[in-house]
Structure formats: structure tokens, C-alpha cells
Write a structure and sequence with these properties.
There is one protein chain. By secondary structure, this protein is α+β, with helices and mostly antiparallel strands. The protein has helices spanning 37-43, 68-82, 97-110, 112-119, 148-163; strands at 7-10, 16-20, 30-34, 48-54, 57-62, 90-91, 122-130, 133-140, 169-174. Strand 4 (48-54) and strand 5 (57-62) form a beta hairpin. Helix 1 packs across helix 2 (68-82) and helix 3 packs across helix 5 (148-163).
Length: 204
């Protein structure tokens, strides 16, 4: 496998660095029990306290008494080598494709996309996420908002697909009591378009 691009991001914890990687690099999410080669050795030594994989990052926390000025270069090199062997990563708990999808979705909604929606008085909650399909419920100012389609397609769907490239469908319904039904906001594989004229339809 070729070199995997990555770059570090500082966190609020000085012992922890978030290493950003391309989505889909690793087939796992969550706390890691085993990692390949030297990174795995560091995890089981007194150098690294924990490793957690997100859909687009590896979060590494150094053990107490260690610091990034001293251990950073070694961790970087060990991580770069370990990313070339994705099948050698073992999560602390079993991970399914649905777990990967849910992790990607919550990462999007907890991040800047969710902040944007909330800043405009809207709310998006997860109804279901399985079989590469997601259904969300739109509430607040998102209900009947003319810009809701743009928010879903250009913001939410694009960000989710970047973290979970195998996404098949993103479906939106309105909040209970407001005719919660699939609308033209249902988005299928890239290239799908709403009905002519943007009219609402009861079919996905």
C-alpha cells in the first residue's frame, strides 16, 4: 500500500493529537486494542495510553510523563507505517459496517455541519442508519425551509459521503405532526436529481 497522507491537529488535551487521514483508510472505528508493528508495541508499552479511530482520523493519547515534543516524530512514523496495513488494526469491540456509518453520521452532525444547522434554528436527528442508508428527521426552521434541499445535498450529504463513500441513500422526513414523509429531499447515489421543478413527491 502506498503512503497514506495524514496531518496532525492539536486538541484541548495536550497529551492527545488527532491525526487526520482520508476517509475509508481503516476498516474500523472506536478504541483500538491492537495496531500493526511499532505502533502496536507503543500501545502496549508506557509510551501510548490509547488509540481511537474515527472515520477520518486516528486520535492518539500519550501516556502520562510523555510529551509530543519528544515522542511526536516516532509516533508519526509508526502511525504512517501502521496505516499501510489496515487489516492489522483490531478494535476493542467488534465493528460492523453499520457502526462505521453511524460513526460517520454522528461525526458530521456533531461537527461544523451540525453547528451550521443549529445556528439557523434548525435541528436534524437520526432516525436510522443501516445497510448504507440513512434517514434523518428535520425539525425547527428546517421544516418546509426552501433551503433545506441545499443543506442536505451540498452540506450534510457531501460531508457524510466524504466520511462514508459507500453511502447509498440519505432520506429526510419532517418532524412528527407535520406530515412526516419522504420528500424530494431523498438523495440517492451521486447524480440523483429532484423531480422536475422541485415539486414535493411522496416517493423517494
Amino acid at each position: 500500500m502506498s503512503v497514506v497522507p495524514m496531518h496532525p491537529e492539536a486538541t484541548a488535551d495536550p497529551q492527545t493529537v488527532r491525526w487526520v487521514i482520508p476517509a475509508g483508510t481503516l476498516p474500523v472505528v472506536g478504541e483500538i486494542a491492537e495496531a500493526p508493528d511499532e505502533l502496536g508495541e507503543m500501545l502496549h508499552s508506557e509510551d501510548v495510553a490509547s488509540i481511537e479511530v474515527e472515520t477520518q482520523a486516528v486520535v492518539i493519547r500519550l501516556a502520562d510523563g510523555r510529551n509530543w515534543s519528544g515522542a511526536g516524530a516516532r509516533v508519526r512514523d509508526a502511525l504512517g507505517a501502521a496505516l499501510r496495513h489496515p487489516q492489522g488494526w483490531r478494535p476493542a469491540a467488534a465493528v460492523t459496517e453499520d457502526d462505521m456509518l453511524r460513526a460517520a453520521l454522528h461525526a458530521v452532525l456533531d461537527g461544523s455541519i451540525g453547528d451550521y444547522i443549529r445556528s439557523h434554528g434548525g435541528e436534524v436527528t437520526v432516525v436510522s442508519a443501516h445497510d448504507r442508508r440513512v434517514e434523518v428527521r428535520m425539525a425547527g426552521t428546517c421544516t418546509h425551509c426552501p433551503a433545506a434541499g441545499f443543506t442536505l445535498h451540498s452540506r450534510l450529504e457531501s460531508a457524510l459521503r466524504a466520511r462514508f463513500p459507500d453511502l447509498v441513500e440519505l432520506r429526510a422526513t419532517e418532524e412528527p405532526g407535520k406530515a412526516a414523509r419522504p420528500t424530494w429531499l431523498t438523495l440517492r447515489r451521486r447524480g440523483a436529481c429532484p423531480p422536475s421543478g422541485g415539486a414535493t413527491t411522496g416517493r423517494p
